[in-house]
Amino acid sequence: DCEALAYRNGKLHLFTKNRKEYQTSHYTLDPATHAVQKVETFDAQGLITGASMSLDGKLIALVGYDLRGLPTVFCWLLWDWQAGTDLYFSGNKRRIELGSALTVGQVESITFETERSGYIANERTEYNGFLFVQQSTRSFDFSAYVPQSVGTNNPEPGRDRLMLYPNPGAGRLFLKSDEVHKDLVELEIFNQL
User: Fold this and answer.
1) What is the Cα 73 distance to its own chain's centre?
2) Most exposed residue of 26, 29, 63, 110, measured as fewest CB within 10 angstroms of its CB?
């Protein structure tokens, strides 16, 4: 079962919906040759129903739901995967809980409008003729969840960049800047995020 796909580097990236193990498998499909290749598998802890790639190609969002126990909806964010590969699950992963499917609805799709913001849509959710949630589209902004070092915040031409790594990190953090004039730099760290 496959409902989620994204396009990157001339290939379609398909993410399966496994109802038995609640994992997702990532396949690539080359539209020119129609060749399909299984790339990797990830324990999504739910059913993946939608996928989208940020406009700069550095962040992937997978949405889905978990029907075990109280039905919940979630979004996985993937970034900093192994350079030059399609191994998206090899990098950083962050799961964001979006709430109960009984109030949010069954999430079915996601799309980016910018590097970190876009829209999530849910389908109408009803059971035995009782309507829980009407279909709707909601906006999102993942800026608070994805570190600046991902590069999804592209600097304007001529502006200096500040890179922080490793991110996330548990110990020492390193800062690197392309800034030419290093006369005065002020940094304020609120927490590890």
Assistant:
1) 14
2) 29
Give the span between the Cα atoms of 135 and 121, in whole angstroms: 7
Let me know: does 16 contact 1? Beta carbons within 8 Å.
Answer: yes
Structure tokens at 179: 């800034």
Would you state the torsion angle of the CA atoms of residues 14, 150, 118, 53, taken in this order, to the nearest 10 degrees? -20
What is the per-residue pLDDT across 115-168, written as a single tens digit (0 to 9) for each? 889 999 999 888 888 888 899 999 999 988 886 556 433 344 444 456 666 666
Q: How far apart are CA 129 and CA 46, in angstroms?
A: 25
CA R_g for the chain: 19
Pairing of strands 24-29, 36-42: antiparallel
- Model pTM? 0.75
Helix/strand/coil for 103: helix
